[in-house]
Amino acid sequence: MRGFFGPEGTFTHQALLTLGDAPALAFPTVARALDAVRAGDVSASLVPIENSVEGGVSATLDYLARIESPLQIVKEVVIPVSFDLCVRPGTQFSDIKRVISHPHAIAQVRGWLDAQLPSAVVVERGSTAGAAETVANPDSGFDAAVCAKVAGELYGLESLASNISDNDRAATRFVLVTTPGPSPERTGYDKTTLVAYMRQDQPGALLEILQQLASRGVNLCRVESRPTKKTLGDYCFSIDAEGHVSDARMAEALMGLHRVCKQVVFLGSYPRADGKEPKVPVGGQDFDYQEALDWLREVNPEIPRLPYDHSLDGVKVPVNGR
Predict the structure, then answer these.
(1) Tens digits of residue pLDDT in 271-289
(2) Other C-beta atoms within 10 Å of 141: how many?
């Protein structure tokens, strides 16, 4: 059974349905959905990780990065996001005094709310579907929810306004998370997610991390800093990069990071949802690495076997620094 950040009617639930109709268990928070995987209560959980408007989802990034309890991403799903203003039947615009929704949803409709409901109090809480459930209760103190139309219908609400997003191209990315194991086979359009911890806070510390990727021709899809929650000013870096751990350039980049970082949390290599092939510079193909190794063997036949030597299927990288 799979888990997901629920309840039913959330965008996470809609994303889960694209993976099939297998039984699924809803969890009220991202943390509980991921902890259920760690505990073995579900085989995998789908959680949001990135939004095109608000960026990374902090709860997911932080819980995935827990070194003592490793997890692994095996798949991603990207869906467009569209919001409605849902109310109890009979509610008019003039009746709306308090609006509720998830913080990321509010951020994506802030302009519309300011223009259409400038006097309404907006409260950020829970999930979009949870907001719809709250508004369905006449005694909740809330008059409207920003949610998906399907969530409003699920709880008997009416859509007072449709497609109210400030950005009609907004999308959210979700990841399917399991316990650590072999990465899905590479497809040629893969993505690798990792967390890099600085060895120490010093000038150029982030540059040193990024150089390990850039010098191997590994392009980044996302990079953002997250507090380690140990001391003020102590940060790690959450990174999505183009390529698979079985690619020679990615394998070398990961080894480079392992050398210069205090800790590297490998969170998995998996197919990109958009099927986009990576930008590989001259000299960055597996063939180029193998040819370079063959040349080096001619110079010095005693060179030891390297991870990308002859068979890239056997590449191994440290998981969570081990």
Answers:
(1) 999 999 988 888 889 889 8
(2) 13
Cα–Cα distance measured from residue 146 to residue 126, given in angstroms and rounded to the nearest whole number: 12
**In the 8-state DSSP scheme, what is residue 161?**
E
Q: Which residues pair with 80 in a beta bridge?
A: 171
For 303, the token pair is 């060179």
- Apex 27 CA angle, 50 and 73, nearest 5: 45
Query: In the prediction, which pLDDT does 21 show?
Result: 75
Burial class (CB in 10 A: 0-12, 13-18, 19+), 305: exposed
Same domain, 186 and 305: yes
CATH number of domain containing 125:
3.40.190.10
pLDDT at 18 > cutoff 80:
yes
What are the pLDDT digits (tens) for 237-248?
999 999 999 999
Q: Which of 144, 146, 108 is nearest to 127 (CA)?
A: 146
**Count of residues for the chain?**
322
Q: Are residues 114 and 236 in the same domain?
A: no
Q: Residue 257 pLDDT > 60, yes or no?
A: yes
Based on the fold, state whether residues 317 and 256 are members of the same structural domain: yes
The predicted model scores a pTM of: 0.82
Work out whether the CA dihedral 46, 49, 54, 59 comes out positive or negative: positive
Residue reference for tokens 């191209």 = 169
Pairwise CA distance, residues 243 & 28, whole Å? 33
Percent of the chain with pLDDT over 70: 94
